[in-house]
Amino acid sequence: MKSQFSYANFSNLNYDTLLLAALMAEKEENELRFVDLFDGREEHRLTVPLGFEDCLGHPLRGDKDHFFERTKVRLAHLHGSATYWQSDSTSCVKLSREVIKDPAMWRSLRMHEHEYRPCVVLTNSRLKRAAIEQQPFDLAYTKFAEAVHRSSRWLVIGYSFRDEPVNDVLRSELHRRRKDDDLPQVLVVSHGKRPTRPSIELALGWTETDAHSESNRFAASSDTWLKIDRDGAFGLQNREVWAEFVDSDPEWPESSEW
Prior knowledge:
This is SIR2-like domain-containing protein. It holds the Pfam family SIR2_2. By secondary structure, this protein is α/β, with parallel strands linked by helices. It has two domains: 8-131, no CATH class; 152-249. Helix content is 30%, strand content 21%. Helix 5 (137-150) runs parallel beside helix 6 (164-180). The longest helix is centred in the middle third of the chain and has 17 residues, at 164-180. The radius of gyration is 20 Å and the shape is globular. The relative contact order is 0.13.
């Protein structure tokens, strides 16, 4: 990973481990300084009884101060991960991909041989707000909000702009920066015609609508800060829009802060 950035924060809405695996590969190959919600300290390792066998797991971080401030790259699964499991009697733990890929794990779960369940936000939008106020999701959202606040470039890939808690964070920060005349550079990458520019602007609070219609009360152009690429994430690094995005010149915090 040859990065032009002082630091990078990834916030993932998927439950899979694809992004985690890619970052772990970079960590091994290029000694990437990387951290996620997983507390990997050996002294915190614990035994997780799963019915078919006892497995080793690690707790997730419980406080924002448990992150290493000088770490260059961070990952937060905002809605949990397939590797996060929780019981009624213990806090959330992270299991290895090998454990959750074992058919015996899921057979034991179906047979109620252990009390652990996947630790993910899998509910309707009405209940989601309450869910993300619980650990570990509250910590993930806290780090997400901090990253948005500190970052001058926002890269959004494969997102519909329909998750209101996520939109709330982006909207609040964009509103603050608009007042300070300090807008971030935002690149939205999709595959196809949606989301449209007006829907993105509306989700981020850039345009206001009349209470009785969808007409804009004001509509300053978003062209200066919002770019949209509709050719998908694959090969993005070779396209002109990416070069423009990374070559823009915002004021970056010193890397020592992270």
